[in-house]
Amino acid sequence: MANSPGSNPISHGSSLGAPLLVPSKEPGWDSGPGSEPQKVCIDDMLQNYCGEFGYWQLKHFVLTSLAWALEAFHTMVMIFADRDPGWRCVGGLGCDEKESNVCGLEPGSWEWEGGPGSSTVAQWGLVCGQKYKVGLVQALFFGGCMIGVFGHLSDSKLGRKGSLTAVCILNAIFGCLTSLAPDYSTYLLLRFVTGFSTGGVGLCSFVLATEPVGPTKRGVAGMSTFYFFSTGIALLSGIAYIFPSWRALYVASSIPSILFLVLVVPFISESPRWYLVRGKMNEAMKIMRTIANANGHHLPDGVSLALDDEANDASNGNQIWKAATVEKEAISGSIVDVIRSPITRIRLFLAVGINFTCSVVYYGLSLNVVNLETNLYLTVLLNAVAEMPAFTITAVLLDKFGRKPLAIGTQWFSAIFCFMGSLTGNVGISKVIRMCCGLLGIFGMAGTYNLLFIYTAELFPTVVRNAALGCATQAAQMGAILAPFVVILGGGFPFLVFGVCGLIGGMLASYLPETLNKPLYDTMTGLEEGELA
């Protein structure tokens, strides 16, 4: 593992350079005469003994990342359920199909295509003066996502797997209940609580999928999770086409969560990093041995896990291990600890700002693409597919150029085309140019969105990683809430706002440190010692 200039090559480099420790007779270690246990951090154990991304990590990564498709279902279902369906005249007086909307038509002179059950708009008449209620549902859904409870719970008692299981159960329940909503107010409430649980799906899935991956493979693995989200959106287009009724669609989009709980969750392991920081050393070592065996490697009995700050002390000769402790005192952290530390406080504020501006641009440009007035199912499908090349290109370049240059470059790439879009008209060839600017803007910001999760995760230690990611996710949800209000301004102004946001986001990213091939710290102490070394 490469180290940055000035970093301690012994603390977070090869564990083979660590000094020998005082021997200890512990069940399961089975040290031979004269041998002494060696304490290494998880990254070193993955690199030197278990394998960074072998068969075990691949299977675990794929199974865990399937949850991203579930998040896509519950988030993007509103596009189809809350759509404004077509209408037609029924032969009465006062009806003219040349009208752009039904606001000026006589009641009873027209009807919804597909009937009142085709969407919530048709069900409860959310048109004309009631149209704002559609935007209110979307805003409250993302508002529910902002309640980042599960990020904190996954860092503490529930763990990564427990939190992922909990949010999937809640999503399945809330999704099915939404299909039974008798009125708009109930529907609004159920979408809010669905947002509450949905906001934790991607977060818990991402951390659980990437924590057992070695440091040199973690970047590409982390960025690959977004393929599952885009695939989920594409699949949702097909599901929505098959189930045109909004009530049936909510049931159909919730059933995959139940299947995930029954068919996938039993085969997912808890994160060894979480076990380690919670003091469950036996459980952590059991998973590491399983990883080594599945990957065709051998984990010697005399090698044991340690938190990175303990590994630092052991390698520097500052700590004498009189006895190996199998069950250690649990170490936990909160967002207060992040803010208290000068290093993580600055990183948190920058990450929050970048996630906010990125979300405004991404969701804003996505809504502008819907204005193409093409087939809704096909448009959503093409939008999902269009993001995938950005994920691929960013993943390929991630370990070559690093996180920081890509974070700056992708945002400024998007900003350039947004500024160009704000200067073009919306007639003739200019309309085509503006559309291309929007697509290229989405392309760039999709790449940013892809690397933000892995970049943000690497900026913070294990004990507070999910809490910090939760704050960044909340900021992104605030951007998602703001985006529709920017879009309704129309003309070139939204492109101007998106360009400014992309420019500011790139500037904020320029103040973050590079994390390429840096160790993934477990504790606040380990991070501070490693950064100051």
From TrEMBL:
Coiled coil: none annotated. The lineage of its organism: Eukaryota, Viridiplantae, Streptophyta, Embryophyta, Tracheophyta. It comes from the Eukaryota. The keyword Transcription regulation does not apply. One of its GO terms (cellular component) is membrane. It is found in: Membrane. The chain crosses the membrane at residues 132-151, 163-182, 188-208, 220-243, 249-268, 348-365, 377-398, 405-426, 432-455. This is Major facilitator superfamily (MFS) profile domain-containing protein. It holds the Pfam family Sugar_tr. It is a multi-pass membrane protein.
